[in-house]
Write a structure and sequence with these properties.
The protein is α/β, with parallel strands linked by helices. It contains six helices and 13 strands. Helix 5 links the parallel strand 7 and strand 8.
Length: about 280
């Protein structure tokens, strides 16, 4: 096995918010995939806000699959578009949080074949300041040994609000030799990327993809009115074409699953003159 085959390079894209977020991802991946050398072996994206900021339609699911994303993670908004119930059980790449109750549509993890090794992707919701769900801590303890027997590389999207909960969960998962714990949900990229216990790639939040001058992807005007008045003002996507793309790039040992590197990506570009 040559040196390149001993490594698996993964791109994890933060929460995609509405059409601007989808366009930011299309532009970034379009530039990558047009090059002769593929910089990543596997691409994951959180898609729970990809359809007008709330949920994921089947149309947008298929659109994002066509541009090269291999696995879709999600979170508490994944049920917001009701057609999710008609296709989530048939999708070969979409997962929902694993700690929803037994009997919930979809699956909480998937295992993928990547460069003659296997990569497992798991999804959990946090419980601090979130709606009640089953314990992610107990599920890791219960399931991880079985999953690690199938896949040396295990990547977790931890969709949670509280930074302290994310940091603690990252350290907890490192004790079970989980390859990466990547925070999502707040849409604000944090600057705390690191490798925990010399094994687990970690960041509190990978950030988001969407309109740069927005309020976490939503219009300023609607957000301001809702926050000032406490009335249930509708949130609308900010459609400005100055776009932000947030992600993390990671490299893993293909045999052990140990993280070798993690690097933040933050790009801001004006696409107002570009047809989408």
């Amino acid at each position: 096995m040559n040196e390149s085959n001993k490594q698996v390079k993964v791109l994890f894209i933060g929460d995609i918010v509405g059409r601007p977020g989808r366009n930011a991802v299309k532009h970034y991946l379009g530039d990558l995939l047009s090059s002769e050398e593929k910089p990543y072996d596997f691409i994951i994206a959180n898609v729970e806000n990809a359809s007008h900021g709330f949920g994921l339609t089947e149309k947008n699911h298929n659109e994002l699959a066509e541009i090269g994303i291999n696995c879709f993670t999600s979170g508490n908004h994944i049920w917001d578009k009701k057609d999710i119930y008609s296709y989530i059980n048939n999708s070969d790449r979409l997962i929902r949080p694993m700690n929803y109750p037994k009997g919930t549509y979809g699956v909480g993890y998937r295992i993928f074949e990547v460069k003659n090794t296997k990569v497992a992707v798991m999804n959990f919701l946090g419980r601090t300041f979130m709606n009640p769900v089953d314990s992610p801590w107990e599920l890791v303890e219960k399931e991880i040994e079985k999953i690690k027997q199938e896949a040396p590389i295990v990547i977790v999207d931890f969709h949670a609000e509280a930074t302290a909960e994310k940091i603690c969960f990252g350290k907890f998962c490192s004790e079970y030799k989980i390859s990466a714990v990547l925070g999502t949900h707040t849409h604000v990229q944090t600057a705390d990327e690191k490798i925990v216990n010399d094994y687990t790639a970690y960041i509190s939040d990978a950030g988001f993809c969407g309109a740069y001058n927005s309020v976490i992807g939503m219009s300023y005007e609607g957000s301001l009115k809702r926050l000032k008045t406490s009335l249930p003002e509708r949130f609308d996507i900010d459609e400005n074409q100055v776009l932000e793309f947030n992600a993390v790039a990671m490299c893993f040992d293909a045999v052990s699953g140990q993280a070798q590197s993690i690097e933040r990506i933050k790009l801001i570009k004006d696409y107002s003159e570009v047809r989408t």
